[in-house]
Amino acid sequence: MNFDIIVVGGGHAGIEAAYIASQFHLNVAILTIPGVGLGSAPCNPSVGGVGKGQVVRELDALGGLMGILADKAGIQYRTLNDSKGFAVQSSRVQIDKDLYSEKAEELIAKITNITVIREKVESISPGFEIKTSAKTYSAKKIIMTVGTFLNGKLHTGSEQSFGGRIGVESSTGLQDLLSLIKTRPQRFKTGTPPRLHKDSIDYSKLEEQPSDANVRNFHCLSDPFSREAEQVSCYLAHTNAVTMDIIRTNRERSPMFNGQIQGVGARYCPSIEDKAFRYPEKTSHHVFIEPEGLTAKTVYPSGISSSLPKDVQEAYVRSMFGLENAKVEVYGYAVEYDVIDTTDLSITLEHQELPGLYFAGQVNGTSGYEEAAGQGYIAGVNASLALLGLDPLILSRHESYIGVMIEDLTSNTRDEPYRLFTARSENRLFIREDNTLIRMAPYRQQLLLNTRLDQYQSEFLEKYELLLKFCDETKISENSILLQEFSGEGDLQKLVRQVSVSEVLRQAWLNPVFALERILSEFSITMHHDLTRTVAISKKYEGYIKRNEGQNERLKKMDLMRVNWEDIVGSGNISFECKQRISRIRPQTFGQLKLIEGIRPATLAVVAAKAL
Amino acid sequence: MNFLYSDDPIIACSTCDHANAALAVIRMSGFKDLSGLAPYFSQFGPIEPRKVYYTNLVLQGQVIDDVCLTFFEGPKSYNGENILELSVHGNTLNTERIINLFVNHAGFRLAHPGEFTYRAMKNKKLSLSQVEGLDLFLNANSTYALDQGLSLLSGNLHESYLELWDLFLKHKSSLELSIDFSEDIGQAAAREYFLVSLENFSKKFHSLVKRVEHQNANLIQPEIVIAGLPNAGKSSLFNFLLRDDRAIVSSVAGTTRDYLSEFLVVEGVKYRLVDTAGIREASDQIEAEGVKRTKTKLAHSFFKVLLINPFEMTEGFSELLSQSFDISFFTHSDLPGFSEARKLVLQSWPELASIGAINLANLSPAWEREINHLLNKKYLKATSSQPILLERHKHLILNVKQKLSTYEAIAHTESDVAILSAELNSIGHCVSEVIGIISPEQVLNSIFSNFCIGK
Fold this sequence. Notes:
heterodimer, A: alpha+beta, DNA polymerase, domain 1, seven-stranded mixed sheet, six-stranded antiparallel sheet, 20 helices, B: alpha/beta, Gyrase A, domain 2, Four Helix Bundle (Hemerythrin (Met), subunit A), Rossmann fold, six-stranded mixed sheet, 15 helices, 12 strands, about 15% strand
């Protein structure tokens, strides 16, 4: 059978890639392992988080899948950094894992130009012929979203097995094609905690974290605050001195510390062994007890991932207050896997040695469902655009977290799994959750993707401009009751003279969203809550963003400047070492060139001055 | 490397090397047209390119200097931009003042080393192989030392800036920590780390500011001050050291009303040698002013010499002795009765027992060598612990100082971390030019190595 695009893997990157490619009316297949549902969540049961919530909303505005599924399966919503200012607030939702996968299956099944093939890959030829146990398929483009299945190896204590996750063998058929390309010599490692039976926990001893009704749903067409699924709580437990002692006395039995595991884990996501040995003075660590679903019998104790032997896992879990009788349903394990060298990928995520082959997700050395989905979208769109002979979609790091991630990945190799943080962005005040639609909708509209969003988004953009204008041009007179309401208390500055609405929204002591809602009601104007919020927050930060843009304006233009790496390498003016690095990474923009490790300032200057 | 993207008007002294000369050339580049500069020149009719004009440089009606100016109109200029060259009087104070005028009033900024040349390359006026000093330019941001051309200072200098860099990084990390990892670390701990790291950075930075503010009197133009009561022989020593008769040497106490100064080069370092008025309870006003200035001079001087004439001691001597001196001498050892007079002095001030005596009428080269040796030793010690800051860096540091004080004011009240972070980034832009750029990756590394992250 022939397809335009075959996506190998049905995880978060895979379904996002296939879903968006299907929007281009191409003939798409998802080739996935039998027995595993689409969009399954083998790690923590949540979507979103700091920097990641932004990605989910960006995907949603771009016509992607993740926001839709997250809402269908969302059972507890939270806003992180609630008290720290709008720009750094991020949404996160706990998901019912089974429901999430079920909804993914349902949604994909309805799309007539996606074929889901559940067969094991036996070989992939350089001519893009894929042999499975049953058949042979061919494709014009292949998108590899194989997660941790490249040479995956599982560890629980001294028990080891080959596989990408518990109960699923790793795929040797991937080796043929991958032998043609370069992987990183350093393997990566990730881990999971033991899963506990949800009825074996004394919740009365733990701190409850209920769902927050004020978090906006992810999908832009959903009613903002009415939930599709029943809402439940998470709970907070803590490790103690006994817990940490149990781990420390079993150092020799820990695969992480006795040399059995060589892979590098992420420093931001340490196992409980890491915490015990790297921070010997600390005994109390947070453990979030997260339900894995409404009907699932297990909970996910986030913060104690481990590859210690089973008896040790049981002992340290039960040392915690409230978990004295906890029953371990599935033991924690670590998985080591190969990742590819993402500097071999172009900014479209196409492999530069093997054109037509795209990579997205954990195989690129990232962690997180959201990061995977973001890459899946970019790979899916660009594989389709390439097939249709159209210009690629490049999101700039100045306007989206997806852009930040893609540029970071393709410009440099990393020594640990890559996760998004807001700290990675230079433009945090602008790339916020509340204005995602302003930033991303134009790209979707231009590509004519998921057109059912057209009406909502066009209206939103139009009214956004109108409301901005209203804020700038409407004055509130000094006699207005509003001014008295908005004046600060005590030492705070009073608003005593006539001011514009925009000026009111900038005052440090006011919540701009409440203030704008109040003003609009005074003027008898009704606006969608989302719109009021976006405009109010945009106005609040306007001055800062402008200043930031002033500082970054030239930089930004410069970063987007296309460079021809072949010309740079051919130039006589650049050091041999720099040429080597440049020919390996093959930067397409000045921004990418700048991010290359070890690039000399002289090289940048020469390119910047166009003085090759 | 922000300057790679910047085409602001720039200014620099093309000839100055912190030494006085008859003439200096100040070069200005990258301005749009001449009209913005007209207010600063007394006669500024139509200026033809590549012709020399003689005019006065004025600020707010006051004449600053008389100069010759030449205009090179872009693209037919050295670097392809509009260039104005001013030949001015070469006294370093004068050139500094003129540069400050254009920086503070006319929107120019100080050029980075090599920046004129970089622009020439950018405008294809020069090929890369012709560009000398490009490395200096490109490294100026990160290795400050190269910029100064004072290799003997680089070790300590580098260390000093690394420390500042590290403290800034820690503070920046503390902000990022509270945004990206608040669940892991807890609100209270993040807040504490934020406040402590701010205090540490601020402390270190202000010690640098202090250095900058006192620098002029100290290391860029180190001063040797000769002090003593009236008629102690200060002017004689001054003239001996300069081999010149500039100061009026007379035996009438209080001849030198103000201080005189001249340059003196010792072991390649240029000092300003200052002869002061004597300190005494003066009755007439000019004398009183002279005394006041002497005290100020002493407070800011680099090397202090005290001369004591045992024949003419007054009450003011105790006050004088309260200053610390690098070297002291009894003078007039050739006069009869010197030993007796000296003994009398020692009765009142026994701590002076160990100091030597000199004959002003016949000063020996050996004595001069001793003073030079002490001077040079002190200079090397001082410069190795206190890097010398150039004008451009002083500007940057004072700029950061201003922004830091705004930031500190809101750090305790603003709850919007994103706004705090934006303010801090704005400091970061300036800081990066002084101490090097801090990348997000470094911030994250700092967080991971200092905190237990991961829920």
